[in-house]
Task: structure prediction
Amino acid sequence: MDPIAYVRTAELLKMSSEQAAGPDPRLKPAAHAFEASLIQELLKPMQHDALFSDAGDGSGGGGVADGGMDTVNSLSLQALAQAISNHGGFGIADQVLKEVKAQNAQAEGPGQEQRQKAALEPLQKFLSR
Result:
């Protein structure tokens, strides 16, 4: 077996046992991204408000560069929504994380450790050759 593949497989085995003890590390960023997309949808009507447009009449200016400004406004709104979510937000991401943690606790009933060992057994046999 290729030494790099062996090391990588050993890392995967270690990660699988560590993940059994804790939540998936990708879960928190995903929950915050979900919350940020909801916040962005709530903030979208602000883009068309007279306070944020160049013309002052809510039309968005109407110039040739208006398409570029729409893109800039959209990106700034996305960044604002992500910053709000990362700094507490509305608590949606925290609620999602709690719910997933509760569902994982229910799924980890009796015999979870034995099922994990049984799933890893073929890989461990292969590595011990």
Summary: The chain is about 70% helix and 0% strand. The chain has one domain: 3-127. The first helix runs from residue 3 to 21. The mean pLDDT is 74.
